[in-house]
Amino acid sequence: MDEPRATRLVQTVLRCYPARWRRRHGNEAAELAALLIRDGTRASSIVWSYLAGAARAWLTPRPGRRLSTAACALLVAAGSLGVSAGLLATTVPARAAVTSQPHGSAHCRPGPVEPAPGVIPAMGRPRVISREAGHGRSC
Amino acid sequence: MNGRDGRDEQDVLRRVGEASVLILISLADGPKHGYALIQDIKALAGVELGPGTLYGALDRLERLGLIEPLPADDRRHPYRITAPGAAALRVHLDSLERVSAAGRLRLRLGGI
Questions:
Q1: What pLDDT digit, counting tens, does each position of A51-62 carry?
Q2: Which site among A5, A67, A91, A106 is 20 to 30 Å from B11 CA-CA?
């Protein structure tokens, strides 16, 4: 790769850094890259190094950004918890239906029960089955 | 090294990575800017620091108060090691020396 092209590529990669970083190090980083290329360092290794550095610069939490990072982490945790609960709710009724079949007892028949209003069917169903299944006895 | 006498708590450089330690060692004999740091570390340890790695480590060390920037000289920002930085480096090098001595002793005892 010729020097002007490599320099242009480095300039492009440096734009991937946060603005705060560019204001602080941008000019020096471009000059440093030019000096390293002149010394014989491969432009591709400089570009990769800056790309990895840019990713780290975005991912490293700053003191002022701690609150928003914590909020994001909480949101992600809540989201994954919701997905897990949803998956659990869809598998429990199926398992309950399978385990109640061999006895064939009249007490254990869930029957056609409608979910309570305002309850998501998938979430409401397991609760209804356990109430119908003989007042806490195992069926 | 297992924290029996509180050495782990003092050795703040234990988790900052090799690049940060090399930068502190390079700055121990005087202030340097980015290009001079890369050249010095290459001569000192045979390690070619990538520029992205260098700036990441400089930011981390500055956040920890172990180095500080000096007024810019044209585009270049020289950095110098702070007193806490020098103390942290001393503790870390002492710790490395102890590990190194233990390793050599075990090699001797093992007859390898």
A1: 999 999 999 876
A2: A67
Would you call B48 and A57 a contact, using CB atoms and an 8 Å cutoff? Answer: no
C-beta atoms of B75 and A31 within 8 A: yes
DSSP collapsed to 3 states, chain B:
CCCCCCHHHHCHHHHCCHHHHHHHHHHCCCCECHHHHHHHHHHHHCCCCCHHHHHHHHHHHHHCCCEEECCCECCECCEEECHHHHHHHHHHHHHHHHHHHHHHHHHHHHCC
Instruction: Name the pTM for this structure.
Output: 0.66
Q: Which residues pair with B81 in a beta bridge?
A: B67
**ipTM of this predicted structure:** 0.82
| Contact yes or no for B38 and A46 at CB 8 A | no
